[in-house]
Each structure stands twice: as structure tokens, then as C-alpha cells.
Structure prediction request, 408 residues.
Amino acid sequence: MFVSLSDKYKTVESYYRDHFVELPGPSGGDGKKIFIDRKLSKRFTELVSSISRNFNTLYFYKQIASLKNIGSLSGLVSKKTVLSRRLALEGGAIQYAIWHGRVYITQIEIQADYKYEKGKRNIPAGLYRVHKEAGKGAWTAEKNGVVTNKSLVNTKNLAINGMCKDIDEAAKYLPAFIQYGFGDAALTNTYSLFFNPAQGIVRSGWRALRDSSGISSTQAAKKLADLLTLAGNNDKEIQLTVHEQGHALLKEALRLVCQDRQTLPNITVFYANPTQNLELVDRWRVRAGMRLANKAPLINNVSVSQNLATGNFISGAVVAGRADGHAVGHVYNGVAFAIGTASLGGAASGLTPLGAAGWALGAAPFLLGMAGGMNKKVITNSGQAVQEGVKGVKKLVWDPVHKMMVRA
Prediction:
């Protein structure tokens, strides 16, 4: 049976007219009108009612509202054909269709509980409770093999991780940084973790690049921004520890917070092993009204990713001065000593056996400081960097098949 284009158009138009209702909130103002399947309208109402108590629903609500600003080109094309889309979010997804310049939401997927499997990449960015196992002393984010996304920060300490194998590894190495920044007594047997799924060099590097550029925010940054917004509306004091690539995530989240004209006066932040330029991160911290911990930022001076590549051999000292005026000289002199030892040791000694030995001695902190896993440790001086680096080297053995050093 032949169906004309006009008949097909009327059929699609009537389907959307009869089965969808307009969303008054997100659909208001400029942009495309947003409609939702009648069967989902009750669930959407429940979602809206909890946005002041649950940052996850606030995050989903904002992403639904963002659909009205999708490109004009898709709006023109959709006048002749239905464009089905799926917006993947951290912890769920929104399925929708575009027709005649309007958005029709067909499904909302929200997941809170996730099965923990070591090394797997199935846990999305979100807020998780970390606890110390009774009798073992080990920190973990899972309980009976499950991790659950929480709705609000209800602990004194909040942390954002950098690179990790999985959420449990992040949960285990962060307490040392929390205690270094805020004191041993600051942490008892639990803390909140905003999990940054920075698993693998390529994946974590791409995420950090997107957030640090400010051009294309990751969904994790948007979700963190909503978490901080609700936390800032609460009078509860929160101590935030940010680790490694978590600084890129924080920087973009703070930009989004400031864009919404929100402030965070009840949150105090400590920077640990940053792989982003600290002055750029701290600029947004100041704009958001967030306080800086009294402890100077922790920077491993012999780590290229923390110090030289990021410009933190200068910026670290500047931010340290804002945190603790007495720390500036210490940070700057430590960096100058490390650089001077490594570079001048080789340049002044030439290529003689004695000179080569001098250069090796001077460069040792840098070479050993790049050992794998060093960014996950609290390193306060060059000597400690060498010590930890040697431990890493001892774990390497020669693989005669692949002609390279591998972990034992």
C-alpha cells in the first residue's frame, strides 16, 4: 500500500500530539519546545520535586533543559524525518526524538547502584561513600560488591581523584592526601568521593583536555558542578581534597558554577599532586568564593607532570603564598634546587666519566620521580622521591621475549 509523504507526516504528527505533553519548566524561554511521553510525566514530576535535595536529579533536569538548545541544522532536517537520539549521561541517559523543530523525550534512564568488578570501567562519575573496613583498616567504596551513587555530601571530607585503575584504588590512596592537607584528625572512618573515571592514560588525558580547555565540558564536570551548587547552598562546612587530574575536572566545574552565579563559601579546598596549572584552577576557586586550605599545595618537585610541564614551578609558589605565606620560599627553593642539580650537574661536568656520574646523581631524583604510581603517593621532598622511585625500579625485571623491563 502506497503511503504519501503528507499522510506519513500527519501520522507522525498525530502520534506526538496524542502521546506527548509539553514540559512547562525546561521548555520555557528561547529554543526548541520540549515534550515528554505521557507515561513518563509522573516520573518527571517526581524528579523535579527532588532537585533541591539530590544533585543527581538536578543534573538530569539541567541536561533535559539543555535539549532545547540543540543545533538548528538538526531542527531543519527533522521537519522531514524523525531524528532519534540518545544523550549519554553519567549514571543514565535520555532518549529523545526531534520532529518539526521540537524535542520529544521517549525515555529517561537513571541508575544508582553498580556492581563493582576490579579494573572494570563500569562505574560512572558520581558521589560515593568510602568507608574503612572494620578490623582490616583498608578503605573501600563498595559494600557487598555494590557501589551506590549518593544524593548529597553528608560527610566532613569530600575528595576528587586523579588517574586510577578503578574506584576502589582511588578510595584507597586518597585518605593519605586528605590527612596531609587537613591533618590526621580530619579523617575518621568515612569520607565522600566524587569519582572521576580517569581510567587509562588515553581516556583520562582526553577528559582532562576537554575540561581544561573549557570548550567542551565533560558530563562529569557538569555533574560535579551541580553537586557543588547544592553543597554550597548548605551551611555545612566541607573540606575538599583534589588530586592530580581531578584539578581539570574541578576547574571546569567551578567555571560552570560561576556561570550560574553561585558561590561556595562553605567549602575549603586543598590541592594535591596537581597535573594542571594551579593559578588557572585557583582563579576559578577565588571567583566561586571557595576558601583555600592553610596547607600549601602538595607538589612533587621532581615530577615532570606535576611541576615542569604544568608551570607549577612558578604557579605552585604563587598559590602556596595564598595558602601559607611562609611556604613560598620553601616551594621555590626546592624547585630551584632540583632543576639546578639536574641541569648544572651535567652541563658543568662535560662528558668525562666523573661528569657523567655527577649528571646521573643530579638527575636521579627526576628519573626516579617519574616512576609509575608516584602521583598516587604523598611526596614532600626529592629524597623521598628517590626512595619511592627505587622501590618501583626494584619491582621491574627484564623480559627476554619483549626485550624490555616489566613489572615482576
